[in-house]
Write a structure and sequence with these properties.
This protein is α+β, with helices and mostly antiparallel strands and about 400 residues long. It folds into two domains: about 150 residues, YerB-like fold (3-Layer(bba) Sandwich), CATH 3.50.90.10; about 140 residues, YerB-like (YerB-like fold), CATH 3.50.90. The longest helix is centred in the N-terminal third of the chain and has 18 residues. It is globular, with a radius of gyration of 45 Å.
Length: about 400
């Protein structure tokens, strides 16, 4: 008979009745107070909202709700700084309000072709002043002066003449051309570095800041634009700066006081130019060669219609430059002569005066008082004393026609 191991703890045998009792006790604990595992992990509890404050009821399990956190105060967004209102001044060549920077831009004078093969020309509507005068072979030529704004396209560019240089010199403009008469080229060589003008010759810039377009034939296809004009100005040293005004400008006339029916017609040997006043817009629509439709600028597709029309009468004669076959001319543009000025539909007969090559061409009424133009673009039509012209004075509604 083997003796029991005295060093081992006695084994307890759980009887079946005791095991059943333990299981029933565990079930009772789970129903009444929660499982032992849940109590150990410390779950959140939701208060019983049944009547009696949870006494005698069974709590429905709900997900835990985190404690509310403080919402940070919104950060104030600073108000945007308002853009300063630009200070406007009068443009020296038009009298229109422009920014101070625009008023300081260097005037740029561009010679523009007037041959029929050059039409439609580009750049008129961006110009502050447009000059037209006889050039050679009975064909006039234009000079467009840009100051307060620049054209999207300008041209076709043609050659220089002495009297055009002298008109551009009134503003010490950059003078844009390609070649020219011997007289003009000599002046540009001697005084084209800012003394009178800044010389921008196409013989230097053709293919770079002047370019050829394909919808026209040479020599009627040389063009430029705003960006290239400014490039040329930088290259020839035509810096921006103060520009002294020469003409006087006044406010527009009330619509009810504008006459109807005013027109001015100029007969160049090559073509006839007519201006017909439109009282509604206070502008003069421009017509070429008896066309039924007004002239349209090829740069912007808009009608050419200046605010002021000036006719200057002066002596022209043949230029003795050794090329009589060219029929080139020279003009007596320094001195004085007859001027016919129309603004706001009215016509005034007076005089023009230019004291020297670089002095401005000034306008006076019959009594010698300076004339006042409407703020806006001016077309200057220069004609020889032999060229015919007609002026029809309009009628203000409700007032009799009065000769000017």
């Amino acid at each position: 008979m083997t003796e029991p191991d005295r060093g081992a703890a006695p084994r307890r045998v759980v009887g079946p009745f005791l095991l059943v009792a333990l299981v029933l006790g565990a079930i009772a604990l789970g129903v009444g107070g929660g499982s032992l595992l849940a109590s150990a992990t410390g779950p959140s509890r939701t208060p019983d909202t049944s009547p009696g404050g949870g006494q005698g009821g069974t709590a429905s399990p709900v997900s835990s709700v985190p404690a509310p956190t403080a919402t940070p105060a919104p950060t104030a967004t600073p108000a945007p700084t308002p853009e300063p209102t630009p200070v406007l001044v009068s443009a020296p060549l038009t009298g229109l309000p422009v920014t101070a920077a625009a008023a300081l831009q260097r005037p740029i004078a561009v010679m523009v072709d007037d041959h029929r093969d050059a039409r439609p020309q580009a750049g008129f509507n961006a110009a502050d002043v447009v000059w037209q005068a006889p050039a050679e072979g009975g064909i006039p030529r234009y000079m467009l002066i840009f100051q307060s704004r620049l054209p999207a396209l300008v041209g076709p560019i043609r050659s220089a003449r002495q009297y055009y240089i002298e008109w551009a010199a009134e503003w010490r403009a950059m003078y844009v051309h390609i070649g020219g008469s011997g007289q003009a080229m000599a002046t540009l060589a001697a005084r084209g570095h800012g003394q009178l003008v800044y010389n921008a010759d196409g013989f230097r810039f053709d293919g770079s800041d002047m370019f050829r377009v394909k919808d026209r034939t040479a020599p009627h296809n040389l063009m430029s634009d705003a960006e290239h004009l400014r490039d040329m100005a930088a290259i020839v040293g035509a810096a921006d700066g103060p520009v002294a005004g020469a003409w006087r400008f006044g406010p527009s006339v009330a619509a009810e006081a504008r006459p109807a029916g005013t027109s001015l017609t100029i007969h160049y040997p090559y073509e006839t130019i007519a201006f017909r006043y439109d009282a509604a817009s206070d502008t003069y629509r421009r017509y070429i060669d008896k066309a039924k439709s007004p002239q349209v600028d090829d740069a912007d597709g808009q009608v050419v219609a200046p605010t002021n029309v000036v006719i200057l009468r002066m002596r022209f004669g043949p230029l003795n430059d050794g090329h009589p076959e060219k029929h080139r001319l020279e003009a007596q543009d320094v001195g004085s002569g007859e001027a016919i000025v129309s603004t706001a539909g009215r016509v005034v007969r007076g005089t023009w005066r230019k004291a020297s090559i670089g002095a401005p061409t000034l306008l006076f009424d019959a009594a010698g008082a300076p004339l006042t133009l409407g703020a806006g673009q001016t077309f200057v039509e220069v004609i020889a004393l032999s060229y015919p012209y007609e002026v029809v004075a309009g009628k203000v509604p409700g007032m009799p026609i009065r000769e000017n």
